[in-house]
Amino acid sequence: MILNKENLRERFLRDPLPKRLGGLAATLGRVSSVARTSSDPANVSRLLEEAKYLIEWTAAEAETEVASELVSMQTLINLWLGAWGNASQNKEQRTLLSVQAKQWSDKVLDFSGLLNQSG
């Protein structure tokens, strides 16, 4: 795995919760895009791993309802990680992950409140 977990964690935890949620939303958005377009399954796996850790580092500080949703997403991400080797070979499965990751991204961005801030 290429992901440098400790460096990522250190940088990620410097940000306030809304910005962390925004970062998670961005990672999930990349999952959506890369699942649809990449010919290398490892690219998606790395992004799914990253999202899994970002959720782990965020859920504990989030409100109960948000934390519950994040943990549910993390469970599904783990299932996708386990199945991705085979699923990545199937266009319909890649599309399914792409749509699901986009929905997750939109939901997490909404949780962040970043779109509602003026200024």
List the helices and strands and how they pair.
Blueprint: H1 5-13, H2 17-37, H3 41-59, H4 64-87, H5 91-112
Helix pairs in contact: 1-3, 2-3, 2-5, 3-4, 4-5
Describe this structure in words.
This protein is an all-alpha fold and 119 residues long. The chain has one domain (5-111): Up-down Bundle (Four Helix Bundle (Hemerythrin (Met), subunit A)), CATH 1.20.120. The chain is 80% helix and 0% strand. It is built from 5 helices and no strands. The protein has helices spanning 5-13, 17-37, 41-59, 64-87, 91-112. Helix 1 (5-13) packs across helix 3, helix 2 runs antiparallel to helix 3 and helix 4 (64-87) runs antiparallel to helix 5. The protein starts with a helix and ends in a 7-residue tail after the last helix.
List keywords for this structure.
119 residues, mainly alpha, globular, 5 helices, 0% strand, Four Helix Bundle (Hemerythrin (Met), subunit A)
Average pLDDT over all residues: 93
Runs in which pLDDT lies below 50 for 5 or more consecutive residues are none
Order of helices and strands: HHHHH
Structural class: mainly alpha
Question: How much of the sequence is in beta strands?
Answer: under 5%
Top CATH class: Mainly Alpha
Describe the structure concisely for a colleague:
80% of the residues lie in helices and 0% in strands. The chain has helices at residues 5-13, 17-37, 41-59, 64-87, 91-112.
